[in-house]
Amino acid sequence: MRRKNCRLDDYRYRSDKGARDSQRAHKMLDFVLNLFLEHKIITHCLSAEDNGQLDKDGADRLIYLPSGLAIPLQVKYTGKNLEERIKKIISDHLEAHPHLKYIFIMTPEIVPKSETDTEGLYKMGEALSRVLFPKIS
Question: 13 versus 100: which is more confidently predicted?
Answer without folding.
Answer: 100
